[in-house]
Each structure stands twice: as C-alpha cells, then as structure tokens.
Amino acid sequence: MFRLLGILFTVLLAIATAIVVWPQFFRLEQTYPFAQLVSARGLVLGGFLVVAVLALLLLFARPLRGFAASILIVALLGAGATGLIGATRGFGESALPDRTESSLRVLTWNTAGEAVPAEVIAQQILDQGADVVALPETTEAVGERIAIMLREQGHPMWVHHVQFRPDVEDGPQSWQTTVLVAPDLGEYSVIESAKDGTSNTGSVPSVVLMPIDGSGPTIVAVHAVAPRMEEMQQWRSDLQWIADQCPEGDFLLAGDFNATIDHMASLGVEGGDIGYCRDVASRTGNGLTGTWPSSLPALAGAPIDHVMASQNWKPTGSVVLDDAGGSDHRALIVQLEPVG
Length: 340
Hints:
This protein is an alpha+beta fold and 340 residues long. The chain has 2 domains: 2-89; 104-338, Deoxyribonuclease I, Chain A, CATH 3.60.10. Helix content is 32%, strand content 19%. The protein is built from 8 helices and 12 strands. The protein has helices spanning 2-21, 34-37, 41-58, 65-89, 118-128, 140-152, 192-196, 232-244, and strands at residues 104-108, 132-136, 158-163, 176-181, 188-190, 207-211, 218-223, 251-256, 278-279, 305-309, 313-320, 332-338. Strand 6 (207-211) and strand 7 (218-223) form a beta hairpin. Helix 1 (2-21) runs parallel beside helix 4 and helix 5 packs across helix 6 (140-152). The relative contact order is 0.14.
C-alpha cells in the first residue's frame, strides 16, 4: 500500500515538475497558478534544490530509500532543467558595451508613482545616456520636471504622456504613463487611440508614439495589468494587445509587461518573443535577472520589465540597475545597434 502511494506521489511530482519547468508545452503559461510560478525561475530552482536536500536526508531511512531516491531524481531533473534555461537566458550582466555613433539606449523603469524622486530618475537617465525612457506610473508633471533637469545638463528630451480618467481628481498614479524621447530621433506624437483608451491596455495605460516625419521606430511604452487571480482575463488581453503593437516594421516596446518571456510563448511570430519583437535582456545575458520586486535579490525576482525590439535592431547589451530608488521595480537599460 505505502509503495503504491509512493509511486503515485512520485508520478504526480514528476508531472507537476514538468508543468512548472515548461508550462508552455502544456499551454498553461497564461493559466493561474502556473503563470505565477514560472515568473520567478530563481525561486523555482531553489525549491527544487530544497526538495533534493530533503530527499537526500530521507535516504538514511532504510524503508524510504526507494521513495526518496525517486523524489531525488525528479528534483534534480527539475533543478537541472531550470538551471539550463537560466544559463541560456543569462543570470546577469553588469555593464553595457561602449557606445558607438549609431547606438540607441532605452531605459524602462516603473517608478511606483512618486516613490522615486524626479532628481534620481533624471540622474539615471544622464548616467546611462538613455535616448528613450519609458516610465509607467510616472505623472506628466514629474516627466516635465525631469525634462527641465535634463535640458539644464545638456541632454534635452521631449515628454509624452497618457492618462486614463483624467477627470478623476487625485486618481491613482498607475493610470499614467510617461515617455521621454531624445530630439535626435525626430518628432513624435501620441496616437489618438492610445490617448482615449479605445486601443490600449485595459486597466493601466500604454503609450504609442508614431514618428511625425515617418522615419524612426514606432515606440510603445508598455504597462500591462498584473496577473492577479481576478485580472487574469484582462492580463491575457493586454499581452495580446502588446503583441499586436509589433507587426513587421521598425518598433521598440519598453515598459512593465507584468509578464516574463515564458508567458509570451504563444504570442511570438517568426522568431519574435511578442509579435515580431525580440526581448533584449534574454539575448544579452540578463534574461533571468528579476526586476520585481526590488525587495528580493535579483535572481529571486521576476523579470517582468522588458525592452523589445524588432529585427532591424541588434541587441548588444543590457543591465538591470541594482538601486531601485524607492520603487518596487528595478530599472532596465539596454543598448541596441541598427542592423545594416
């Protein structure tokens, strides 16, 4: 009887391990609770190692050796597979390559409202030499203060902004997203459907910027709703909308996707991670470096803030900044080079 129970438990553990390691094979990557579990692969790896240690201890109990050995094998296979995925995507790079004349640097930072002072944001933009900055949960007033500070330091940037329900006085700052763009990229304008919400992420706003002169990439500052149990359908809808913003052409997506590239498995087209766009961090050694929550070590967190680029941009580097400045998100800065 106990032997049969042991076999059944081992089989169930093996199935659960396979789902947790690669939920997209079972098409469960956007299903609660597997979507939440796969978000933090560092913690999943740690969990497998804890199970492996417990199984090793059980080996000392002679009646349980067979059961313990089978559990140990499953845990080690799960840890090995998770570690291999992490090694492929990267556990962390700490520096960008030297900038060239054609380099483009994109910074994204969910600032959690005014948790991060405008002065700190402006200094990071200067330090990193960012050309495009996506700031979910940042008000237009803060964006303008940042732009004034940058102009005084010889680094001017245009400010663009979208706010849901501007008629609501003192509405949550998560209803706002601000984008800063260097003048060297040309003039941009927020498309009307993004302003009025008819084509946008559903609960918190994204910003779609089109180049006025027709040149330069279309820029989308992304903010998707978090995948809470009650918001799963809206979250899936947001991810599909984001994927639709990167058809063939010249596109940059940056912001708080509230999703890892595992969640996007069904949304990529022709080698892209979401639409035709490719994730920069996972192609430059930072795919497993968590950006949220900043209270946890980076490798224990979830890499849910991204910069995505269409195939006419070559990813050359990325860095997740250690100092979150008071936000619950770390900032991500990437470097791109135009192809051809």
